[in-house]
Amino acid sequence: MKFIVIAVSLLSVVLIAPFLIPVRDLEGTVNPILLAEEDSMFVNIKNINIHYKSAGEGSTLVLLLHGFGASTFGPSSSWVWGKHFFVARGDWSFS
């Protein structure tokens, strides 16, 4: 039992400690909005810029959310849905 407590404690430290270390702001980076593609759009909600792309002219909204590590950049077969729906793909990686 003592081994399990020690193992869980060490694992907790390894997984949580990196998030407690302060990181200074990056210098010399380019604003991601300047790197966006021509068909990219942005909406500002509570001081957070949310990047999205949209297609289609239907009256029903289909909101597509991608998983961790993915983004709206790149080709997508989701635009096929644009024939019948208004499709929006959100990307919260821009701040």
Could you give a quick summary of the protein structure above?
With 95 residues, the protein is an alpha+beta fold. It has helices at residues 2-20, 32-35; strands at 41-45, 48-55, 61-65, 86-91. It starts with a helix and ends with a strand.
Task: Give an account of the 3D structure.
- The protein has helices at residues 2-20, 32-35, and strands spanning 41-45, 48-55, 61-65, 86-91.
- With 95 residues, it is an alpha+beta fold.
How far is the first residue's CA from the last residue's CA?
45 Å
In terms of DSSP E residues, the strand content is 25-35%
Q: What is the mean predicted local confidence, pLDDT?
A: 78
Structure class: alpha+beta
> What's the number of extended β-strand segments?
4
Features:
alpha+beta, four-stranded mixed sheet
Topology, element by element:
Elements: H1 2-20, H2 32-35, E1 41-45, E2 48-55, E3 61-65, E4 86-91
